[in-house]
Structure formats: C-alpha cells, structure tokens
Amino acid sequence: MRVSATLPDSELPRQWYNLAADIPHALLPPLAPDGSVLKPEQLSALFPETLIEQEASSQRWIDIPEEVLEILARWRPTPLVRARNFERLLNTPARIYYKNESVSPAGSHKPNTAVPQAYYNKLAGTTRLTTETGAGQWGSALSFASAQFGLECQVFMVRSSYDKKPYRKVMMQTWGASCVPSPSPHTRAGRKILEAQPDSPGSLGIAISEAVEAALEDSSGKTHYALGSVLNHVMLHQTIIGLEAKRQLALFGEKSPDTIVACVGGGSNFAGLSFPFIKEKIDGANIDIIPVEPASCPSMTRGLYAYDFGDTAGMTPLLPMYTLGHNFMPSPNHAGGLRYHGMAPLVSAAAKQGLLRPQSISQVECFSAAVQFARSEGIIVAPETSHAVAQVIREAVRAREERREKVILFGLSGHGLLDLQGYAEYFSGDIANTPLSEEELDSSLASLPKVGPAL
C-alpha cells in the first residue's frame, strides 16, 4: 500500500512553467506611478536583467540553470503523501494527497524562488539583497539562499511577527542575514509610520516600502531588492511544485485531481502547486481549484480587482490585482505570511477569468483543522497551511455527504515548528477570529490610486 511517492533526482523538473503563455485573456500591463505603461528597464534599479526578462516573458517553458538545480536537489523532489489517517479521521471516500514543501532547509516552499533570485543577482554583480517578510518564512529562505552565493541580506520583518516569532530572526542570523522589525527607524517610510503610530504592528506593505527604499538608496548599484511572492517571476519559479506533483500522482495511479487546495496570501505557494493544473483546466479538464485566504485579509473574496501599489508608501509599480487597498492594515493574527493587501496579478487574472474558486476562513477554524491534521498525520503545519487544511476538511466532508469518491490535492507549504506560540494560544482559548468590517474595508479601498483604467 503506497503512502508516499518520491521521484529520483533524474526527474527533478528542468524547466519552469509560465502560465502567462496560456491564460485565455492576456495579462494587463503593470503601470508606472503616473499611470503610463511600465517599461522593463524601469525595474533595473531593483532587479537583475534576467529576472526582469522572466517577469515580462510569455514563453511557456523557461530553463532552470544547472547551478540552481544543484542546490534545489538537496531536498527536491519533495514527497507527495497520501493522507490515509486523515481520510479515516474524516470518514471520507475522498483520497487526500499533500505535497510536502516543509522539507526544505528553511522549512517551506520559499527557497524554490529564493535560490534562483540569489543566483541571478550574483551573476549580475549584486553583493547585497534587501527584502521584507511577514511570518519569517521568506526572510529565512532568502537568508539561506544568499548564504549559498555569498550575498549580504537585510530583512525587514513585520513587527507583530517579529515579536511573536523570535526564532525566525535567529534562523536569519544563523545564515548571516540581518533582521529588523518593520516599521523601523532605518528608512523614511518606516519613520513616517512610527511618527503617526509608534506602536504600529506593521504590515507587509510597509515592510516592502522599507526594503525597496533601502535598495534604491545604495548609490553603488550593488544592492537589489528580492520579493518572495506576487510578481510573475516568483510564480514561475514555484511551479516546480505542481510539475513534480503531476508525475507523483501518476505513481499512485491517479490521472488528475478533482480538487486542488492551497493557502494564498501573495500567491506564490498557491501558484506553484496549481499553475501546471490550471493549464489542464484551460484545456478542458474538470478541476476545482481553490485558493484559501484568511477571513481577516480577504483580498480575493472581498477586495476589488483594480490597479494598486504593491507597497504602502507607493514606491512600487501599479499592478492589476485583487486588493484591499495599499493602506490596508491587517489584524496581527498568526497567519503572518498571508496578511498582504493584494494578490499576484497572475493569480488575480486566473480568478477574474473564472479558473479559480477563492475561499476565506477564520483562524479558529484553521487552528482546529491543523490540530486534527497533526493528530492524524503527525505534521504540525504552519498557520498559513492550516487554511488549506481547513478547506480540505470542508471538501472531504462534502464528499462524504455526497458519497462521492474524489481526489483532493493540497499544498503543505511549511511546518509550524517555529509557530507554536499560535498553537499555545489556541489551546488556552486566546485565539479569536478577527473579521474585517465593512467600514474598515471601505476606508481601505478609498486609498486606491486614481490613475490607470478602471478594471
């Protein structure tokens, strides 16, 4: 009886898949802050040329460099596991599989893009990278990747997570990076926020502003910015997840999943698992593809599809995406990696074109689901992943009620071994749902920039 499927090193995907080549309606272009169409060269102060080319590419397959493959092969291909105990617990006829990305050195899917981003920066002569991080998964991953290529790394970590998850900072320090809480006194953007709200819990939008400013302030040109989600090239690098999963499902004798579930904040983990299957759906396959976000930060389920800044200070290009408004201040809950005001343009476009069925779930239900999963399968998942687990339970129960066999594939994006404070608060009854009110939503959406076309 097969429980886990692994692939030999020889079957590690050697190309990334680019959904931009196949999405039915062409992507809208990013815009400069003045509303004009952004030119690729306008990104050169932040990114090396190869990443800019990947960002704008409509090529279906893009080769993965050998130097990148050599590092990824330390933990990839990652396992695909049949969650048989979880199925028994739920008494469901559904067959549940999870793609386990927690086995990477940083404990999540994030190194899949951190490694190539560090590699391309090294080739371009970059000596220092700046970035932001929410829960610390991305900051940890980029710190690890930077160490592999001898790069300095500075991480601005959302203050609420910085305070609740101190060992993420230790991970970054161990790999040689520096980590400061955001908003910080080190940048103009940070100081402006602190002057208005000295006890600000921070947000990914603020941390992005600080990291971008820190990169642009280096007159030597040796500092670049690295982003862990949202942009097209990040989605591209993550598709190695879904490409492996397709081959591994075949080892179980499964042709295709009926349902795909993954948590979604900026979009990279979801895109990595789902994009190769979205291609099948475009070609006619009947697959229900579900991105799951926090009810407290519901960009896809309650936000607007509009042009908006990727950061709070308005230093980034305007992107066409589902957004809550770049001034949105999320509640400081434990799913820090999902508390972002906007959604990746490619994920947003797929949702807008009817290829996805977004859902949002409150954090009490998510922690309850994570505990059920841990007690049956053994893995303590990150609070982010708990959103996927909660939706899987909903789908499995529906299959039981309908007495219908189905194949559910979900993404286990990271372990929660450094997130145990959240579990402790759940067990003590101190975890509460923090729904977003209509007043808060309306106020935040009022900050949308008045440039670019209405979408």
Describe the structure.
There is one protein chain. The protein has 455 residues and is of the alpha/beta class. It has a domain at 4-8 and 65-107 and 233-440: 3-Layer(aba) Sandwich (Rossmann fold). Helices cover 40% and strands 16% of the residues. It has 18 helices and 15 strands. A seven-stranded mixed sheet has the order 1-4-5-15-10-11-14, with helices on both faces. It has a four-stranded parallel sheet with strand order 8-7-6-9, with helices on both faces. Helix 12 (268-282) links the parallel strand 10 (259-263) and strand 11. The protein is globular and about 60 Å long. The N and C termini lie far apart (51 Å). The model has no long low-confidence stretch (mean pLDDT 93).
Features:
seven-stranded mixed β-sheet; 18 helices; alpha/beta; 455 residues; globular; 15 strands; single chain; Rossmann fold; four-stranded parallel β-sheet
Low-confidence stretches: none
> Kindly, what is the distance between the CA atoms of the first and last residues, rounded to a whole number of angstroms?
51 Å
Q: How is the main sheet built?
A: 7 strands, mixed
Taken from the alpha-carbon principal axes, the silhouette is globular
Query: CATH topology of the domain at 4-8 and 65-107 and 233-440, which one?
Result: Rossmann fold
